[in-house]
């Protein structure tokens, strides 16, 4: 019998990277990165009350969530411009001039544990968009303000890869 999930565990917090396009997303709040690979809908079939088979239904988009520490929307490197488009008259809109939702590619790199023969595993989520806007949370105590991002990918699976060097 084969062993499953027997590799060396890794941690995103040990040098993991999130890219929007080719730009690094900095100040990701520790422990907040999550993604969900949803594949296809499951549609159980029955015959006279007995389950017979489960067939694949519609594709469902992937979800990616993470929090970042808030920096000004007026900063030259503000994340809002990358995920919603540039400020116009002080406002943001996630709609393009052609009426489509603003999309972008998002890459998550999980760096390998020491001694591994590869530098990182990579998941590329294509045509991402904001699922339901951006949530702002004011800080309490010694913490800082945060933005919570929940993104959907216009694909039912990211593209996984592992560079060899």
Summary tags:
8-stranded antiparallel beta sheet, 165 residues, 4% helix, mainly beta, two-stranded antiparallel ribbon, globular, single chain
What secondary-structure arrangement, pairings included, does this model have?
Elements: E1 17-20, E2 23-24, E3 34-36, E4 40-47, E5 50-59, E6 62-69, H1 79-84, E7 104-111, E8 120-137, E9 146-153, E10 159-161
Q: Output the structural class.
A: mainly beta
Count of DSSP strands: 10
Stretches where pLDDT falls below 50 for ≥5 residues? none
**Helicity, as a percent range:** under 10%
Overall mean pLDDT stands at 88
What is the number of helices? 1
Q: Biggest sheet: strands, sense, closure?
A: 8 strands, antiparallel
Distance between the termini: 31 Å
Q: Which overall shape is indicated by the principal axes computed on the Cα atoms?
A: globular
SSE topology string = EEEEEEHEEEE
Strand residue percentage: 35-45%
Radius of gyration: 19 Å
């Amino acid at each position: 019998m084969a062993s499953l999930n027997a590799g060396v565990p890794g941690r995103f917090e040990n040098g993991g990277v999130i890219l929007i396009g080719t730009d690094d997303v900095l100040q990701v709040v520790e422990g907040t990165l999550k993604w969900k690979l949803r594949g296809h809908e499951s549609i159980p079939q029955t015959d006279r009350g007995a389950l017979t088979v489960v067939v694949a239904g519609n594709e469902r988009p992937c979800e990616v969530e993470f929090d970042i520490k808030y920096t000004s929307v007026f900063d030259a490197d503000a994340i809002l411009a990358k995920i919603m488009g540039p400020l116009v008259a002080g406002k943001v809109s996630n709609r393009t001039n052609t009426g489509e939702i603003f999309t972008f590619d998002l890459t998550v790199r999980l760096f390998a544990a020491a001694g591994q023969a590869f530098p990182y595993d990579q998941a590329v989520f294509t045509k991402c968009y904001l699922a339901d806007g951006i949530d702002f949370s004011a800080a309490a105590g010694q913490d800082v303000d945060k933005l919570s991002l929940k993104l959907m990918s216009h694909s039912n699976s990211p593209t996984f890869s592992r560079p060899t060097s």
